[in-house]
Inverse folding.
């Protein structure tokens, strides 16, 4: 039998036929591909993807939010070629290697202060599973075995494995497997679109934080952790909220003895404007002090550590989850970072007190080397400063789009933009996706929410094309 790489596909039709006969595609109803065919991709370069017939598509969603520095990035390619000549993989149980040590050291230096230990997985859902298990196991090891429950924000998304689904509040993903999971509670989302008329995003966030406090007061004895997507809830339609909520969540979790898990799988690695979204929590002086100080839960966490900035800007979660963009979109990798206090609770003679979780490809050297190359690009190119300029430019040229009669809730955080489109919503996402392909764009709406999350290498001409073509699409749909 001749392998596909020995006999490469030369046409879209050929690749489509073979894919539909052999591949079960994710997050899909396969029957829908009868009317909305798969998009065959042959190669990528920069922000562009090219099909087998040579048509190009601007990857405005970074291939499910993972690609930071463009397809076929020469520096990441070179790092992987070099690593291939030395070590492709070795198991991390009982062994170690230079790329995983270097990556752990660099993440420790970059992350919110106090996060000194890295545990590796293969994808975002794995990171969620690791953090949930690690939190509950910590409480067991420290004599509080009743703390086994979790809370998350309404409309939250943290992955689709069974543990992750228990803290995911998206019915489409969760309900089909409801009998297999232990449903967890949710608290109101600080999504600024839900603020009352005349209410500021900050005041609404504080009102939601008050609801979080009420829940913690009532249930902290059973609660292990609160898991949250900082600043932007992706699957909720790019729901953006005021960073004051992060500060209050940290304060309240400290007061009531509940871990705070920051799921930065989608929003980390510079996507919100800072390397980690948690860095944007405001200083303590700008927020209310926790109610009940002096009458805290006996489970209250000791010695909370806040941020890296002068004056306490930013927060340190108990667990920080990273994946997606950490390898620049090249290879599967996830990491859970945690504090020394949590690490020490597992450090003992008894095997049962250790954290008994593993993946065959944990800390894969190739993936770690791609992540190191990604961090090099951040440092060498001053990416965060460049992204601020790009965001300002796109916001400037997008005025005709943001003010279109059918557009509502235009919003931007870092290198994420989103808005809702008024009008008939039946099959909106599919119709928008199809129109975008006709206009050389890859857009993947969430309901009637259109969003941009492009690779950071997008230039001004490409941003102009993205905005102009999207305006044409909105006009057609409206």
């Amino acid at each position: 039998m001749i392998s596909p790489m020995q006999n490469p596909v030369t046409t879209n039709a050929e690749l489509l036929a073979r894919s539909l006969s052999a591949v079960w595609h994710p997050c899909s109803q396969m029957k829908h591909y009868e009317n909305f065919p798969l998009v065959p991709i042959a190669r990528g370069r920069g922000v562009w993807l090219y099909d087998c017939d040579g048509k190009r598509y601007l990857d405005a969603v970074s291939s499910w939010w993972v690609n930071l520095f463009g397809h076929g990035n020469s520096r990441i390619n070179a790092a992987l070629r070099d690593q291939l000549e030395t070590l492709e993989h070795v198991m991390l149980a009982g062994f170690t290697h230079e790329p995983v040590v270097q990556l752990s050291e660099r993440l420790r230096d970059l992350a919110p202060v106090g996060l000194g230990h890295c545990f590796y997985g293969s994808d975002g859902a794995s990171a969620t599973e690791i953090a949930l298990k690690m939190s509950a196991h910590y409480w067991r090891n420290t004599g509080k075995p009743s703390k086994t429950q979790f809370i998350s924000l309404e409309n939250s998304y943290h992955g689709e494995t069974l543990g992750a689904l228990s803290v995911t509040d998206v019915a489409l993903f969760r309900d089909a497997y409801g009998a297999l999971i232990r449903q967890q509670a949710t608290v109101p989302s600080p999504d600024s679109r839900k603020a009352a008329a005349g209410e500021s995003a900050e005041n609404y966030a504080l009102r939601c934080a008050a609801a979080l406090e009420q829940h913690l007061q009532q249930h902290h004895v059973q609660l292990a952790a609160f898991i949250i997507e900082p600043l932007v809830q992706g699957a909720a339609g790019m729901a953006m909220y005021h960073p004051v909520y992060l500060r209050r969540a940290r304060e309240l979790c400290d007061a009531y003895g509940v871990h705070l898990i920051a799921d930065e799988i989608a929003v980390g690695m510079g996507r919100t404007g800072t390397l980690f979204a948690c860095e944007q929590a405001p200083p303590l002086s700008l927020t209310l002090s926790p109610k009940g100080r002096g009458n805290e839960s006996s489970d209250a966490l000791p010695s909370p550590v806040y941020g890296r900035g002068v004056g306490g800007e930013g927060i340190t979660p108990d667990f920080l989850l990273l994946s997606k963009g950490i390898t620049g979109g090249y290879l599967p990798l996830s990491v859970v970072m945690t504090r020394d206090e949590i690490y020490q609770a597992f450090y003992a003679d008894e095997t049962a007190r250790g954290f008994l979780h593993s993946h065959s490809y944990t800390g894969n050297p190739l993936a770690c080397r791609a992540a190191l190359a990604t961090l090099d690009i951040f440092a060498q190119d001053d990416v965060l400063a460049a992204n601020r300029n790009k965001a300002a430019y796109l916001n400037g040229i997008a005025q005709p789009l943001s003010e279109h009669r059918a557009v509502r809730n235009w919003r931007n955080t870092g290198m994420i933009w989103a808005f809702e489109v008024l009008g008939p919503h039946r099959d909106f996402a599919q119709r928008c996706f199809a129109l975008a392909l006709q206009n050389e764009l890859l857009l993947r709406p969430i309901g009637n929410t259109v969003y941009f999350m492009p690779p950071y290498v997008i230039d001004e001409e490409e941003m102009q094309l993205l905005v102009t073509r999207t305006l044409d699409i909105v006009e057609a749909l409206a």
